[in-house]
């Protein structure tokens, strides 16, 4: 019997780019990354205000490539800062749209993924999905304790790519994801380092506005007392501080750009400050990997470096030099998110899985109450 085939548009809004893909079943017929300058994104007051700009950018890119959207079977977006939920493919529903527009767990470009998917899909009368959003939460109770009873640690990370890459590497090793322990460092606009213990991400830094290494545009962990003093200095509004932590932190804060390729050119031209700051980012990633190795009690089958920054050979070498005593370092530059989104939608379209209904089983994140 001839199996039905599906054409899927996938949309991945990141903090520095919008990536889109069109897949005929598993086969990509278009994959493209549209990069956004920091100056352009900073003209928008909030993430949600970028909606029209990103939608036009996507439709123009599809038009330029000669893709007729009326032939699509479904649209699938990268999911955003929803309530903490289990992984999987979710149908976009009203409750989800409300939480994405509000930014239930915070503001990040991926909040636009589900909204853009829904808006494009509903005009065509086809289904819209999200897959493994950034709020997938598999933390063990011990990892939720921050040391400050009023604040619990949260799981906000590159769940989609971390899990897709970890599955791929496990397969290459002839094992199941559920049989191995990996440390995965996704290094993009944000940086997250996950401890994957037999198929579950039992600890990971909150890469949005929580903690961990600084990144191209985020501050990561900063000394708490000094931050509190700054907040109460009377010199800044709350929004200004938040912008300095997310969006204008990290490389943007020190060097004025979120583009590591530009930073590498600055270094090649002899810029000593750029060299120090770029090395410090590698140093902090290595430190976080060291911490994750302790979470896994040293039983680490591989360390995987992925995301856009993993294309940077010197950057990767600096990290590997510090951590390769823990386990083999496997470099998987870029990300597999577009393919993972298409595959998540396909599993549902083919009836292999049922789409989960949001919010479904919200993960219990409070240890004490
Ligand atoms: N060839 C490269 N060498 C070094 N850095 C790169 C390269 N390509 C992309 N990057 C950097 O990777 C970062 C973006 O990573 P990416 O995973 O695409 O981010 P996001 O999806 O969060 O927008 C940027 O700082 C970009 O300059
Ligand atoms: C919010 C965690 C995911 C993240 O940081 O994504 P980007 O690197 O695309 O900003």
From TrEMBL:
UniProt name for this protein: Probable butyrate kinase
PANTHER family assigned: ACETATE KINASE, BUTYRATE KINASE 2-RELATED
Organism: Thermolongibacillus altinsuensis
Signal peptide: none
Keyword Cytoplasm recorded: yes
Domain of life from the UniProt record: Bacteria
Compartments where found: Cytoplasm
Gene Ontology cellular component annotations, sorted alphabetically: cytoplasm
Annotated catalysed reactions: butanoate + ATP = butanoyl phosphate + ADP
């Amino acid at each position: 019997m001839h199996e039905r085939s599906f054409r899927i548009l996938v949309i991945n809004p990141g903090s520095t780019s919008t990536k889109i893909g069109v897949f005929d079943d598993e086969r990509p017929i278009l994959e493209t990354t549209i990069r956004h300058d920091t100056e352009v994104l900073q003209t928008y007051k909030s993430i949600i205000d970028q909606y029209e700009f990103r939608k036009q950018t996507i439709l123009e890119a599809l038009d330029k490539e000669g893709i007729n959207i009326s032939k699509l079977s479904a649209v699938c977006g990268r999911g955003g800062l929803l309530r903490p939920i289990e992984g999987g493919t979710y149908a976009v529903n009203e409750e989800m749209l409300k939480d994405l527009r509000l930014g239930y767990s915070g503001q990040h470009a991926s909040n636009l993924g589900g909204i853009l998917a829904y808006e494009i899909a509903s005009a065509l009368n086809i289904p819209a999905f999200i897959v493994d959003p950034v709020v997938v939460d598999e933390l063990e109770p011990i990892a939720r304790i921050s040391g400050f009873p009023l604040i619990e640690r949260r799981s906000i990370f590159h769940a989609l790519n971390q899990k897709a890459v970890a599955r791929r590497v496990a397969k290459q090793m002839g094992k199941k994801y559920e049989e191995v322990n990996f440390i995965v460092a996704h290094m993009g606009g944000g940086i997250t380092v996950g401890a994957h213990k037999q198929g579950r991400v039992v600890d990971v830094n909150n890469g949005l506005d929580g903690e961990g290494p600084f990144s191209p545009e985020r501050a990561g962990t900063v000394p708490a007392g000094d931050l509190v003093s700054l907040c109460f200095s009377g010199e800044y509004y709350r929004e200004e501080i938040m912008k300095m932590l997310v969006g204008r932190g990290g490389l943007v804060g020190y060097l004025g750009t979120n583009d590591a390729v530009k930073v590498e050119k600055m270094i090649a031209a002899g810029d000593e400050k750029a060299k120090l700051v770029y090395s410090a980012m590698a140093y902090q990633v290595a430190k976080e990997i060291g911490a994750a190795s302790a979470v896994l009690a040293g039983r680490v089958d591989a360390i995987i470096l992925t995301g856009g920054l993993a294309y940077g050979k010197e950057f990767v070498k600096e990290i590997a030099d510090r951590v390769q005593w823990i386990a083999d370092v496997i470099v998987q530059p870029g990300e597999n998110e577009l393919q993972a989104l298409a595959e998540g939608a396909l599993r549902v379209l083919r009836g292999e899985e049922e789409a989960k209904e949001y919010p479904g089983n919200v993960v219990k994140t409070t240890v004490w109450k």
